[in-house]
Amino acid sequence: MVSFLSTAKIAFRALWVNKMRSALTMLGIIIGVGAVIAMLAVGQGASQKISEQVASMGSNLLIVMPGSLTSGGLRMGSGAQMTLTLDDAYAIERECPAVAAVAPMVQGVAQIIYGNQNWSTGVQGTTPGIIMARDITLASGRSFTDQDVRAAAKVALLGQTVVENLFGSLDPVGQIVRIQKVPFLVVGVMEEKGQSLMGNDQDDIVYIPVTTAQKKIFGTQHVGTVRSILVKAGYAANMDQAERQITDLLKQRHRISPRGELDFTVRNLTQLLQAAEQSTRVMTLLLGAIASVSLLVGGIGIMNIMLVSVTERTREIGIRMAVGAKTWAIRMQFLVEALTLSLSGGVIGIVLGIASSEILSRLADWTTIISPASVILAFGFSGLVGVFFGFYPAYKASLLNPIEALRYE
Amino acid sequence: MIVVQELTKTYQVGEFAVPALAGVSLTIARGEFVAIMGPSGSGKSTFMNILGCLDQLTSGRYLLDGVDVSNFSKDELAEIRNRKMGFVFQGFNLLPRASAQENVELPMLYKGVPAGERRRRAREALVKLGLEGREHHLPNQLSGGQQQRVAIARALVNEAPLLFADEPTGNLDTKTSLEIMELLSRLNRESGITLVLVTHELDIAAFSQRVIRFVDGLVVSDIRQGDR
Predict the structure, then answer these.
(1) Which long-range contacts (CB under 8 A, 24 or more apart) does A368-376 make?
(2) How far is CA A137 from the centre of its chain?
(3) pTM of the model
(4) Contact predicate A111/A293, CB 8 Å
């Protein structure tokens, strides 16, 4: 039995003798592994970014909007009539078991003033349910309460962009701001959420109790109605169930006959985001697959060089056989050579891949993530390539007849 | 001890079967020094290759130390070559990129001898053949005679009882040829190694105790010369 160490030494020497050739052969694997690592890093970075955006929007969200209305044969567009009321929202919260949180929404744009600063921002009247529905965390202060909603209290919850523009570095909690000239007490500030998938600044917002919004800010045109109702289902799997329960409940409340036209629509908000998530996942796979092709080509390069090497060294193989090398020993020698090429190429490729994804994230400002799994995958794959493409040349070498190999010129 | 009975070897060249050995029977006793002679194409090299387990026979029987090796597998033959046989070739057949020391270590590598012992024994063998100080030279840094002595050291290092030499002096000048032949016959006399030598030169064959002549794949004469 020949020790592995001796076999490895023979392999290293053979590769060292043809430095240039070995380096070029390795280059194929280096590029392949590097490309796989970099592409997976880019793909995983993109999908994490999207996941973060999905999470910032709040997960498992449904939105109930006023529906189209037919009035005297004239069909009006969706949302033409304010058909949803605050009581609808409370009923959904009370009676739909698949629902975890409900936040009725009344929104508009309003001027907000603090001291000598002013800022135009989105003001949303809602209930404390918004905190859970949109997965909001507070940076300081508190949320407004159900009590505040019942009393139509003049309290507000500010987003980071609003805070920056009005207060700079001051702590806004406890300060009074004016929204449409009405004074509001700032009770809390929300953590930053960043951009939404559509590019909206999710921090440029002020939340106030829905009742206050209806009475004091957005006027009295439709007392008690809301623009939409945001609903969070208990679990992702419950989305359809929640949708059905809401539809049934609202049909009953709005006295719509079983086959009548609905005056509201329930839309699944996260579907779009999940689709985006799905598509980046597909893209990651695609990038990885394309990069794997270059790894495959690198493997073919190894096979090519190993076949040349076997032919060139026929006489050496003959000598080794004459002094007693068995089939196994010859096969191992060439297999270890191929493996050495592919694995050292793999290691260099990993370093190169990590470096290039680092450069990409610095220069192009892309999020890149190098997961241990992708490194292990690339390294394992390069080893597999070595064994797969090294085996045939090694097998061919071991089949040589010693006397013919010795005579080979 | 080597016993061959009705040994034949036929090469298939395209559609034609070319007989190289046409039924050879003979016995070589332990410790003998045999020269095999004959014109080129007489089958003498084929015969030696079969005795040396480098080639397989077509029909007949080959008993080595009482064991029939006629139908041994490739790996079994490799094992026998490794433990019982040493080879010296006309073209030396050293690994060109390995030092003298590493070339001599080669048979021990395939026997599984530990590295330390391998180095020690290879050094000893080289010193014994007068190559002290040349251990780390590559073959192309050595003269022909020195290269052939490295090859002989390689053949002896596993303490094989059988040594096959195929035209060992073919690439050497007269003076060096005589040195090498002196060396080989001394090994035969002093260490009791069985020596089978293929040559077509009479003065080289003259070193042996027995000359077997081949013509057209058959033994035509087998003459013992007695001790010189």
Answers:
(1) A368/A38, A368/A41, A368/A42, A368/A44, A368/A45, A369/A41, A369/A44, A369/A45, A369/A48, A370/A37, A370/A40, A370/A41, A371/A40, A371/A44, A374/A36, A374/A37, A374/A40, A374/A41, A374/A44, A375/A37, A375/A350
(2) 21
(3) 0.70
(4) no
Whole domain around residue B36: which residue ranges? 2-92+160-224
Q: Which residues of A97-109 are buried (b: 16+ CB within 10 A; e: fewer)?
A: ebbbbbbbbbbee
Please indicate whether, in this complex, the C-beta atoms of A326 and B97 are within 8 angstroms of each other: no
B93 chain-A contacts, CB cut-off 8 A = 315, 318-319, 322, 406
Alpha-carbon distance B52 to nearest alpha carbon in chain A (angstroms): 9
Pairing of strands B16-28, A74-76: unpaired
Angular region, B87: left φ>0, alpha ψ -120 to 50, beta rest: beta
Domain membership flag for residue B122: no
* Ramachandran sector of residue B138 (left: φ over 0; alpha: ψ -120 to 50; beta: rest): beta
CA dihedral of residues B116, B121, B127, B130 (deg, nearest 10):
-130
How far does the CA of residue B101 sit from the closest CA of chain A (Å)? Answer: 14
Query: The domain spanning residue B187 has which CATH number?
Result: 3.40.50.300
In-domain check, residue B175:
yes
Look at A328 and B75 and tell me if their CB atoms are within 8 Å: yes
pLDDT for the residue A322: 93
Domains of chain A, residue spans: 4-53+275-407, 82-262
Task: Report the chain A residue with the minimal C-alpha distance to residue B85.
Answer: A323
Supply A25's token pair.
Answer: 């052969």
CB B157 within 8 A of CB B100: no
- The closest CB to that of B110, out of A5, A329, A403, belongs to A329
The reported pLDDT for the residue numbered B228 is: 47
User: Which residues in chain A come in under a pLDDT of 70?
Assistant: 1-2, 68-81, 197-198, 220-223, 236-237, 270, 272-273
Positions of chain B with pLDDT lower than 50, given as ranges: 228
Instruction: Identify the three-state secondary structure at position A260.
Output: coil
CB atoms within 10 A of CB A325: 27
Q: Of the candidates A3, A17, A324, which has its C-beta nearest B81's C-beta?
A: A324
Q: Each residue of A201-248: pLDDT tens digit? A: 888 999 999 888 888 888 756 667 888 898 888 876 678 888 888 888
Residue B53 has a pLDDT of 93
Q: How many domains does chain B have?
A: 1
Indicate the burial class of B192 (C-beta count within 10 angstroms; 0-12, 13-18, 19 or more). Answer: exposed
